Amino acid sequence: MPACTRWAPIPHPGMGHAMTEPILKLTDVRREFRRPRTSLRTPPPVVRAVNGVNLEVAPGERLGIVGESGSGKSTLLRLLSGLDQPTSGQIEVQGRRVDGQSSRQLKWLRETMQLVFQDPMSSLDPRMRVRDIIAEPLVAAGMSAAGKREERVVTLLQSVGLPKDAIDRYPHQFSGGQRQRISVARALAPQPKILVADEPVSALDVSVRAQVLNLIDNVVEGFDLTLIFVSHDLSVVRHVCDRVAVMRRGEFVEVAPTEELFADPQHAYTKQLIAAIPTLSAALGGRTAAALADEVNQQAGGENRD
Ligand SMILES: Nc1ncnc2c1ncn2[C@@H]1O[C@H](COP(=O)(O)OP(=O)(O)OP(=O)(O)O)[C@@H](O)[C@H]1O
Ligand SMILES: [Mg+2]
Prior knowledge:
Helices cover 35% and strands 21% of the residues. The protein is of the alpha/beta class and 306 residues long. The chain folds into two domains: 248 residues, Rossmann fold, CATH 3.40.50; 37 residues, no CATH class. It has a six-stranded mixed β-sheet, with helices on both faces. Strand 7, helix 7 and strand 8 form a beta-alpha-beta unit. The longest helix has 17 residues. The termini are far apart. Bound molecules: adenosine-5'-triphosphate and magnesium ion (MG). Adenosine-5'-triphosphate binds next to strand 2 and helix 1.
């Protein structure tokens, strides 16, 4: 064997993402909620908000999670970010367990994984100036020199397209789109590896949605992040994600690379979601959303939940 080939990687089936360790791994994750009892004779109803989710996300991947309201998307994000505990199953981030850990044990996760929410007005403290909002995670991470912090805040503002003088203003002095830029800057501050976004553009005016999506696209690229992006709208996810998980009633009914999912949706529910995007519904033979809803129920075949 020539010497130069000795160091070549051993060919491996499914090279690419499969070769690297997943940055995020979920194994049969479940979260049940008990609803208040409605009768003394029957047990309290159980909502299976997340019902056996398996998932591996490779570093640098951009995964979209799509599903209707109540399908369990936010619950799943709360579980993988350690804000809530699963009823059963395993969650690993960078090979470290997240489930069953106390919030003190998960300090590392709050730096590795950052969240951006739907409504920046309620996720940003209205009494704090932008300087302090963005610097807060830096202080928590131990950056004590004020001058250095200020420098970093200004750099972060620039990287989300906000002017330097934004630093002295309060959240209410910005538009919705600008506020979401502040949320993104704050999320980037602790130099995370994973950005988790829960409907980050749903509350925004249609005219600024594309700008904020472009921003997310740019920061994921520029900061070398892994993205988990939740939306009820497939057309939004299509812009930023390279793989999509379709969630329905707590389960992933289909997971596929984005273009494959659009070109050849397998599950009737995915087809229904695509049909809800006006310009693409023709691709499904002009069937109405109602006809597809019937098909979903047939395919789901009595998979009722209590
Ligand atoms: N703390 C809780 N207690 C009881 N039930 C809950 C709780 N959190 C979520 N649920 C239920 O779990 C299910 C999933 O809710 P979740 O918020 O995860 O859905 P979602 O897909 O994020 O919806 P949306 O698109 O409206 O944000 C719903 O039936 C909800 O009512
Ligand atoms: Mg939600």
